[in-house]
Amino acid sequence: MPAPDPELLDRARALLREHPLIDGHNDLPWQIRQHTDDGKDLDAYDLTRRTPGHTDLPRLRAGGVGGQFWSVYVPAEIGSGFARMQLEQLDLARRMIARYPDDLELCRTADEVERAFAAGRIASLLGMEGGHVLEGSLGALRAFRDLGAGYLTLTHNRNTEWADSATDEPVHGGLTDFGRAVVREMNRIGMLVDLSHVAPTTMVDALDVAAAPVIFSHSSARALCDVARNVPDDVLRRLPDNGGVCMVTFVAGFVSADAAAAIVPAHEKVSRRSAGIADPGALRAIRDEVMAGIDVPRPTVADVADHIEHVARVAGVAHVGIGGDFDGSLIWPVGLEDVSSYPVLFAELMGRGWTDADLAALARGNVLRAMRAAEAVATV
Fold this sequence. Notes:
alpha/beta, TIM Barrel, 9-stranded parallel β-sheet, about 45% helix
C-alpha cells in the first residue's frame, strides 16, 4: 500500500487531537486474561510500554483515541458459568482502568466522556459481548449495568435462549418475547443495545422495539463483504429513524470478500474446537493453531474507507462510527495494524474529500449523540 500523504496525515492527527476518537470495541480485557493467569496479575501486562497485542497507552495516544468501549467478553462456547465469568471480566476491566488513573477514566455517560476528554484522559466505557451472560435474568442485566456496563451485544457467535445470532442456525426467527423485554429494559436503564453479531431478523425485531438509538459496535457493510457478521442495507436504512450508529470494524474477514473466504471457515473451526473450554490460554492456543495454518490476502485502509463511505451513503454521515475490534482478531488491513493507526484511516478519508465536520462526527460526535439520546429515554 502506498504511504499516506504526509500533509494529510498531519491534518488527520491534528483533527483527532481536537476531536478524539471514540472506538466501539476493543478486546484488551480478554487479551489480558489470556496472558496473565486469568487476569489476576495486571502488572504482568503493563500498558505503559509496548504490549504483545494491539493496544497500550502510548499507541492509544498516538492513534488519537479519546474514548474506548472496552469489551468485557465472555465466550458462549464455554457452556456454563457465564454470569460468574462476566463478573470477573467487569472486575478485570475496572481494575485495569483504575491502575492508570492519569490516563484512563471509567465513564458511564456522555457528559462523563466529555469531562474525561477535557482532563486529558481516555474515557473508558464497558461493553458486554453476548446476552448469554444474563442467564435469562433481567436482574442480572440491571446488576451488570450498575457495575458500569454501557452496552450489551445481544448475542455472540451462538444463539441465546431469546435471540438468534448471525453465525448460528436460527431457532427463534429473531427475538422472543423475553428478548423484546431485554431491549425494553435496556432502554429503561440507559444501556445501549448493540446489534453486532446478531442475525438480521434480530436486528429488525430490536429496531421495531427500541425506543433509543442502537449501535453496531463492530460491524461493516454486507453489501461490500457478504458475510453474516455485517449489516444489510435494509437495516442500515432504518438507522436515521432510530438515531443509531454502525461502527465500522477493521477485521480483515469482515472487510474483504477474499479475506473472508479464508477466515470465516477458520473461525467456525475455532468455535467448534472451543466448545466446553473455559481456560483462556487454551482458547488462545486453539485460535493461534488454526489461524496459523491459513493464508489470508490482507485488505487495505482503502477497503475500510469504502465500508465507511457505504454506510454514510446508505444511512447518512450522522450514523457511522468506528469499532476497530483490536485485540479481537489476528489479521488486519495493511496500514491498520494497531490502535496507533486511526490517523492513517482519517487521512485516507480526507483525501476522498471528507470535511472536518463529517470526520469529527465519525470520530466521536455520532456515538456521543446516540449515548445522549439513550440517556434521555432512560427512566432510572
